Design the sequence.
């Protein structure tokens, strides 16, 4: 399979990253995941517009610095930092050769945000995701999300997401 990623220096990107075999390990290791984000952002700066962490996957929107398009390096560092203290799963030869631990799926979904409308649809998708998966009744009830920060920034009312938002149906990534 030949997959081509889009690299846009200083771009804004939506990502979906999934654990290997959808292991539900992210919430149980949320402090480790947060530390991996902090470590990665110190080494390779980027801004986070939005993020939601579910047990087996996460979605996020990142803004890279002007002149920088290397989100792949950031994901490599973040995944390794998170994985290093965890015990390894049963690994195949390819995983051992690539120094993987069997924690993350190798690939991730990347989408370059095209405009304000596209950004808003992805922002809504991220914040509605815990409701979509049946974890909570409203985005405000999910503690592993940037939703309440977005409410504080005036992007949402606190009761947003009690019903399926219109733009969420336009985003199909997982």
Sequence:
């Amino acid at each position: 399979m030949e997959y081509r990623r889009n690299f846009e220096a200083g771009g804004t990107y939506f990502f979906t990253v999934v654990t290997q075999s959808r292991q539900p390990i992210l919430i149980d290791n949320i402090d480790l995941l947060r530390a991996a984000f902090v470590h990665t952002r110190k080494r390779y700066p980027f801004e986070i517009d939005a993020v939601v962490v579910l047990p087996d996957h996460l979605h996020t929107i990142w803004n890279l610095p002007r002149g920088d398009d290397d989100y792949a390096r950031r994901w490599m560092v973040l995944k390794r930092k998170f994985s290093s203290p965890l015990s390894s799963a049963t690994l195949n030869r390819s995983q051992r050769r690539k120094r993987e631990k069997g924690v993350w799926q190798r690939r991730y979904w990347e989408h370059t945000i095209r405009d304000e409308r596209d950004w808003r649809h992805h922002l809504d998708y991220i914040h509605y995701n815990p409701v979509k998966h049946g974890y909570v009744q409203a985005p405000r009830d999910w503690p592993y999300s940037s939703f309440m920060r977005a409410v504080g920034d005036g992007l949402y009312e606190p009761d947003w997401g009690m019903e399926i938002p219109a733009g969420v149906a336009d985003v199909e990534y997982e």
Observations:
- The mean pLDDT is 89.
- Helices lie at 30-43, 71-83, 93-97, 116-132, 147-152.
- The chain has one domain: 12-165.
